[in-house]
Amino acid sequence: MATLYEHIAENKRRTVLLVLAFPVVFAVFTWIVFAVFFWFTSTFTQPDTYQAASATASDWMTQLHGTLLVLLPLSWAVAVIWMLISFFFGDKWLMSGAGAVRVTEASQPEIYHLVENLCMSRGLPIPRIFIMDDNSLNAFATGRDPKHASLALTKGIIQRLERVELEGVIAHELSHIENRDIRLMLITVAGISFFTFVGEILLRSSFSRSNRSNQKGKGQLILLLLGLVFMIYGYVMAPLLRLAVSRTREYQADATAALMTRHPKALASALRKISSDSRVEALDAHPSMAAMCIANPLSKMQLFSWMSGLLATHPPIEKRIAALLEMDKGY
After folding, report:
1. Model confidence over 70-117: pLDDT tens digits?
2. Which of 331, 173, 215, 174 has the alpha carbon at shortest distance from 263?
3. Is residue 277 packed enough to be buried (19+ CB in 10 Å), middle (13-18) or exposed (0-12)?
4. What is the pLDDT of residues 166-219, one digit of tens each?
């Protein structure tokens, strides 16, 4: 396994590649979809004559490039603005979406001191601590860097785990903060959320236009098609970019957590309990956040859980437990 510093460096490289991949893959995907659209409309709406066929062959590519010359730069500009806002404020949005409430040393002294002690052992700033009002067992961390990080725990994980097990879970999430996994996942979630959000707006706008007018021009069809492109990309294509997120990040976080606590067996026990009840109902409405959690928080039957490649970015908990138990032999 790579060292901590190698893992951090790799995460930085993957973050840059991921930021570049989103617009590039989107541009290629959009070009293909609109090329098919313009070819179809130009071919099957013209009279069946040789001159019309020649005009079609020469004009549809011009129409395609003219349209995309406007749409793609505009889409990229909006995406860049979205990503910048998400980079600086995304953690607050994610906590709000999870229904998490921030706690302080005064309101939750035991949890605060547990986090504080672990942070001191690694020289980390204390992250903002949140609690999700859910009786299940799960946790996640997010933020752009260790100085601007947030940690969320469900009410259930606090109440149902032994102290040494909870310490292991918190150490695992702090490891994601230290390893800069949180930045990579924040960019991923923000990117996917942008495309699905804009897609919904475009589709609703297209349908509302059709309700107000009986005329369905090419402009409205383009709006509808662009909305479908955003939605399909957000729900099907963009999650494939999660393959850029290394599967080893969970093993790395487990190993770092074991070094923090000197008790890998406790984290293994915590993972075993978490796997039996990890669903967080608030996150069913925010499936793109699933890869940030210590275990799958979504309903087992939810389609997005399968499409998003969650299983490709989260190693099986059984293997993580086995690796931790192997580490425990050395203590």
Report:
1. 777 877 787 778 778 888 888 888 899 899 999 999 999 999 999 999
2. 331
3. middle
4. 999 999 999 999 988 898 888 888 778 888 888 888 888 877 655 555 445 566
Residue reference for tokens 């021009």: 217
In the block, which residue shows the tokens 């955003």? 230
Residue with tokens 């032999």: 329
Q: What's the angle, vertex CA 169, arms to CA 261 and CA 302, rounded to 5?
A: 155
The span from the CA of 156 to the CA of 5, in Å, is 34
For tokens 């850029």, name the residue: 244
Q: Coil, helix or strand for 132?
A: strand
Pairing of β 149-154 and β 128-132: parallel
Cα 99 to Cα 152: distance, rounded to the nearest angstrom: 10
Cα–Cα distance for residue pair 201/184, rounded to 1 Å: 26
* Residues annotated as part of the active site: 173
Return the ∠ at Cα 247 (arms to 99 and 327), rounded to 5°: 100
Distance separating alpha carbons of residues 223 and 208, to the nearest angstrom: 11
Name the strand (E) or helix (H) holding 106: none
Are the C-beta atoms of 134 and 155 separated by less than 8 Å?
A: yes
> Residue 142: phi, psi to the nearest 5?
-150, 175
Total residue count of the chain as it appears in this document:
331
DSSP 15-49: HHHHHHHHHHHHHHHHHHHHHHHHHHHHHHSS-SS
Tokens 């906590």, residue located: 95
- Work out the burial of residue 42: count CB atoms within 10 Å of its CB; fewer than 13 is exposed, 13-18 middle, 19 or more buried: buried
